[in-house]
Specification:
mainly alpha, two-stranded antiparallel ribbon, globular
């Protein structure tokens, strides 16, 4: 159990910090006290902790997912990673068009969900993750630890309107990783 937690911590820390680099490099957000490559020292450890929290939440939804439909093989996991990394990249490219970006995230998420078995569970988990992630980022932003460069025209709790859509795309990946870790 501890090995799984530590492995997920390191994967989350590295993967999360790499995705966050997209936001740093494109100017989506900034840290007032950068430590390494424009990021604060706490970014990677926070992503490691958050990865564990998200996967723990995803475990609650696994009984509602058909094992054969949500088989965590390498191809499915890689596809989910590509979707999520692509969503991150899209936020770097289109963050100055927040309403369009939010709409694209939602449309792409709907396309993904329509083809998904056990849609109800995936939809509920996705929405809960989007709400929780946005609230947590808003709270951290309120401390002044980081700021988004462009919040207009409709900020949601000190975050851009498109941020919940990014979390929507993280949910299928989290469910596959949770299933994979349950099998190890």
């Amino acid at each position: 159990m501890l090995k799984r937690i530590l492995a997920l911590f390191f994967i989350g820390a590295i993967g999360g910090a790499m995705c966050d680099q997209i936001h740093v490099r494109f100017g989506v957000l900034f840290y007032p006290e950068p430590f390494f490559l424009g990021q604060a020292w706490w970014v990677a450890p926070l992503f490691g902790i958050v990865a564990n929290v998200i996967i723990a939440g995803a475990y609650l939804f696994l009984p509602r997912l058909a094992p054969e439909a949500w088989k965590p093989d390498a191809g499915r996991i890689i596809t989910a990673i590509i979707w999520f990394a692509g969503a991150y990249l899209l936020s770097g490219l289109l963050f100055k068009y927040p309403v369009y970006l939010a709409a694209l995230y939602f449309i792409f998420w709907i396309v993904r969900i329509v083809k998904t078995e056990n849609r109800a569970a995936v939809i509920v988990f996705s929405i809960l993750l989007a709400l929780a992630g946005t609230i947590v980022e808003g709270l951290i932003s309120l401390t002044g630890a980081f700021s988004y460069a462009f919040l207009a025209p409709f900020p949601i709790f000190h975050t851009p309107v498109w941020l919940p859509g990014l979390y929507l795309h993280g949910a299928p990946l989290a469910l596959l990783v949770a299933r994979k870790m349950k099998l190890i």
